[in-house]
Design a protein that fits this description.
By secondary structure, this protein is α/β, with parallel strands linked by helices. It has helices at residues 6-16, 18-27, 32-41, 70-74, 99-111, 133-139, 168-183, 202-209, 212-228, 249-256, 280-294, 338-353, 385-393, 399-403; strands at 48-53, 116-121, 149-154, 190-191, 194-199, 235-239, 260-262, 277-279, 302-303, 305-307, 332-334, 361-365, 368-369, 374-375. Helix 1 runs parallel beside helix 11 (280-294).
Amino acid sequence: MDTLTKKADDMSCLRLTRRSLLWGLALLALAGEVEGQEMEQSSARPITVACYYFPNWHTDPEKGKTTSEWGRLKVAYPRFDEHQQPKTPAWGYENEADPQAMARKIAAAADHGIDVFLFDYYCNDRVSDYLESALSKGYIRAANNDRVKFALMWANHDLAGAKGEVSRQTFDRLAEHVVRDYMTHPSHWRIDGKPYFSIYQLGTLVRGLGGVEQTRQALDHFRALAKQAGLPGVHINAVDWGMKPDREPRQLVQALGVDSVTSYVWVHWVRLKDFPRTDYDYVLAQYLKHWEQNRQAYGAPYFPNVTMGWDSTPRIPANQPHDGRGYPNTPVMSGNTPERFRRALELVRSRVLEQADGPRVVTINAWNEWGEGSYLEPDTVNGMAYLEAIKTVFPPKLASDRKGDR
């Protein structure tokens, strides 16, 4: 990872292209006029804003889940000078599996320009409905779920003592459940008519199924199930976590028929170089470099990501020091103010609008990754400021526009 100073990184960006010059100027708050022009150009809002949703804020006694991650958040404490912990939700420690609580989240998201919740979804050879109640009981039963669409991001990493690799039997069971219970729902997000399904670790899926050819067969079966249900297929998205652009990911993406690629969070690609904290604008500049250098590497449309922040210290055991030994014991992002977050959104929006064709989508991390310090839900310090930033850059769509979403 490049260890030059932030000033040198910015200067490097300025030398890349005219587009890079605009990004650097905006980072220095010197491009207000340009930003205003871009806002006018994007008034029709041809960009879909999809926000990741982490569903670990409920109990589910009937499935043996009697605690939630709120407990970790409540006992978090500052790990260095000026470290803001604990984070306290302005709405209180809600049960997201309650349809009324979820309805408030949906309303706030829709009112502030968010079009889609991408629910983290968990299934492996050992667990099949882990953390699913936020979606199945909360969102699906919320009376206003037509205001924000939903889709799944299959978090197929190691979990609960089980490997992320799954058997073909498990994958087929997952596909049947997802098509039957979610993809046919009227509020499911679709691109060109196809329901969206994202896979967190494509390489893990390939290893578990025994190779690229076997994985293509499993995905084709998934697509066939969708067609049997009256859908035109499945839009398969791959999160680029673990996909190395210098190792020919294009071949894998094309062999599997992947429709698009995106990122989950900036820190997957940017090392937080300074401990205990790394400046937000440095991370943004490094992510923009990654995007510029690798957006063509996958051979499929790339949906950029905007990350609100990073602070995983609430997940460090209370009796362990914060020393950077590895996740969750990492540096945090500092200076991720609502104003800087807004500028990051403006930079990404401007670049997405330059795309000649293909779906225009931006993913955001995250609606409620409280345990990792990346959340849009209001807290007792900033209130709705991060949501207001999204609203400024991506004005809410009219109901008629939402019905016509890709």
